[in-house]
Amino acid sequence: MRMSIAEALTNMSGVLIKGLDHVQVSANWMAATGEEVEDLALREGVEALSKSCVDLDISVPVGKDSLSMRTKWEDGSVERVVKSPLSGVITAMAPVADVRNAVTPELNIDTPSKLIHVKLNDKNRMSGSIFSEVTQSNFINTPDIDDMNLLKEMFNSIQELVATKRILALHDVSDGGLITSLLEMAFTKKIGLDIFDSKLNEENLNEYFFAEETGLVLQVAESDIENIQEKLLSTGLYVNVIGSVSDSKNITIRSESENFFSESVLTLERYWREVSHAIQSIRDNKTIADSELNLLDDGEHSGLFSNESFDESILESFNILDSKPKVAILREQGVNGQMEMAAAFTLAGFEAVDVHMQDLLDNNVSLKEFNGLAACGGFSYGDVLGAGGGWSKTILHNNLVKDQFEAFFNSTSTFTLGVCNGCQMVSKLKDIIPGAESWPSFEKNLSDQFEARLAQVKIQKSDSILLRGMEGWSMPIASAHGEGHAKFSQDNLDHLISNNQIALNFVDSNENNTETYPLNPNGSAEGVTGITAADGRVTIMMPHPERVFRKLQMSWRPEHWKEFSPWMQIFINARKSLN
For residue 161, is it within any domain? Predict the structure, then answer.
């Protein structure tokens, strides 16, 4: 339990929180009570957690226990008993004032730097480690937190370095030990590392790299290395410079006198993904699983990027506008994307109005009141298969509501945006949308799984008024859906292309339309993931621009973006279309 609370803290150490006294912990216990050994172990675990939290000034306001994790039955004349192992699960949380004060494991390859291993002591205890499990080795001593005050010192010291932006990258050391942390950092950029320690030898190599003692790996600038070392050492921590980013693609481990190991980072990532690939091949779709693994060997693939000419200064002009056109933020039971959608439209100068389908069905609200309509994404009807189709039927099978939608789509002074579940729903209304007769249906992803990723898309030349001026832009966007596979005949696809109705495509690193998984998470032909109709006034897309209109909503972003991401342009265009 001491190790669990320590890992909970090192997991959040890269984000600047308000302080340890603001950390709160949920503790969940599962045990087969009623036997002395289990009862004693549970008591000792609870006491260890309690004392640790008191020492760290952390509160445990909530917890849950299942203390009957044992089943017993008669097998003829034999009594059988099965017990679950005692376990405690720690979930820690803390308020964050500014999410921009954060460091991730993504390595910086532009600044001359070194890697530092920081931990509480110079011990390498191996019992209970992944290494001991895999090799079936017996070790006596397990990792532990011998000095809780020193853990507090380590956390606070790292927080101070994060606050002053002196850490380039950070990864905690836990399952798998130091080597796993180093490799996962290397995988972020597919680059090599030169790992060096003069004390390494054949006898201590495994303990050095596979011990799971609490600690962190920091990447810091070479110019700051001595100051940071001195600061951390002054607290009593164990601090060791262990290497640097390499110009090669190899992970190399060496001492002054001997080279112990050298292997390609891509080969090692293949090993790292081996189990996941095997599970994915059985559970999902083997072709899809192979496609994701083989992407490692694609020398042309360089990851996410941004190619656009977005200027967010235009938003300042919206602050002085007197009129605020109304946009209906449409949702149905289970939809959960309405808040982000409303926020984006509000910042673009709209009055965003929450409209539930029941409001329309009860005739309490009319679409005649609105200049725009945004059908939101989420999990309508609990995200059952074809939920978007069910949502559309509540419109098509009610003449009052159907007539409102048809009139809205035919008006030359309105716009419509459908996203994700809303995209699927609006696609089912194509019979009442001018020019939508060739639209696809959106079916189950080829991976047979819900796919939540940051995906690269390119904006095509189309009539969409929401994408006006964005032709040729290519940026990452949040994508999260289980039924995003655009299914249509080749004739319909050709018709949409020739009529400038394809709005968005998933693309590869060379900006070519792609059907390769996971660059294309659903398998749509030509990577099609957004289309338009009604002379560009109705646009639907599977990805979520409303989830990433601010740069801070992105899990990856380029350095040149300011407050907003280029996806804010969609909402700016919506406002400009009504001027």
Answer: yes
